[in-house]
Each structure stands twice: as C-alpha cells, then as structure tokens.
Amino acid sequence: MNRYSAPWGRSLKLLTLLGSLVLFVVPLAALAASDFTGALSLVIVLPLLIWAATLPFMVTGYELSAGQLRIARLGWATVYPLRELRAVEYQPGVMAGSLRMFGNGGLFAISGWFRNKALGRYRAFVTDPDRSVVVRFADRTIVVSPGEQERFVAALRGYVSNGDTG
C-alpha cells in the first residue's frame, strides 16, 4: 500500500480557523444573551452541528492499494477502483474559477461537487489547491491534493487504461 499525506494549504488553514471561530463565537454570544428563547437555542446548536457535521469529511490522506484509490477521511474512506482510470496529471490551481455545486468550500477540506471551464463537472477531495492532481476516469473526474504529487502521479500512471476492452 502506498500512502500519501494530505497537507493543508494556507487557504484551508485560514478558512478552517475563521470558520471554526465564527461557529464557536456565535453560540457563546447567544449564551450571553439575557433573553433565552427557543429561537436562541437554534442559534446556539446549529453552528455547533455544522462544525461537527463537516469534521468527518476532513481529508486525512490518500492510499493506493489493490487497484483502488482510497481517500481517507476521519474513520472512513471514499474508494475509487482504478480499472477505468484514463489519465492523471498534476495541475496546480486547476480549481480556480470553480463553481461549487454542492459541498464544503474550506472547513477542514475543500470537498464536494464543483464545475469549471477547465474540468467540467468534477468532485474534489482537496486540502491544498496548489497541489491539485486531476484524476480522470471513464465516467468521472476527481481532484485530489497529495503531499508528494510527482510520486503520486507516477504511481497512478501505472493504472492508466486506454479504454480498450479487447
């Protein structure tokens, strides 16, 4: 098994810090309010739930083993079989100008479904956009950001198929 780290870039560190501060300061400020109402309890609980709900989706690393790319999360993984891998390329900054269709734009990870002119529709599992590696399968495109991009790309290229079945 080849394991690759998922180092946090400066933007993810900043967004996670600021997002966490807001999500903890809002409930503290609400608790300090003198009139405690039912609506106020939502202001206290909702930010903490958002923070807790995003935590399990943190990208902690990437693994290549048994013909699979595993994107490690906290306690689970997203798995992509490599039998339909078509191309892999290190493309720093390829996510620039992306529209987030659904997902998380920077609290513990940049993950979810995105779209831009360069890639079309894709799924991201990124911790540092400057380390972006584009992984193209027959039916989907994903973007990851391993710490050792060149080694990761070289290892994945061994799985690239041209799509021939015969």
Describe what you observe in this structure:
With 166 residues, the protein is α+β, with helices and mostly antiparallel strands. The chain is built from 3 helices and 10 strands, in the order βααβββββββββα. A hairpin with a 4-residue loop joins strand 3 (68-72) and strand 4 (77-81). The protein has one domain (1-166). Helix 1 (10-32) packs antiparallel against helix 2. The protein has helices spanning 10-32, 38-54, 149-157; strands at residues 2-5, 61-65, 68-72, 77-81, 85-90, 99-105, 110-116, 120-126, 133-137, 141-144. The relative contact order is 0.19. The strands form 2 sheets. A 6-stranded mixed sheet has the order 5-9-10-8-7-6, with helices on one face. The radius of gyration is 19 Å and the shape is elongated.
List keywords for this structure.
single chain; 30% helix; 6-stranded mixed sheet; 166 residues; 4-stranded antiparallel sheet
Q: Give the strand order, joined by hyphens, for the main sheet.
A: 5-9-10-8-7-6
| Cα-based radius of gyration, to the nearest Å | 19 Å
Structural class: alpha+beta
Residues in β-strands, percent: 25-35%
Regarding quaternary structure, how should these chains be classified?
Answer: single chain
Average pLDDT confidence is: 93
Number of strands: 10
CA-CA gap between termini: 29 Å
**What overall geometry do the principal axes of the alpha carbons give?**
elongated
Q: Helical residue percent?
A: 25-40%
Q: Spell the H/E element sequence.
A: EHHEEEEEEEEEH
The biggest beta sheet reads: 6 strands, mixed
Q: How many structural domains can be distinguished in the coordinates? A: 1
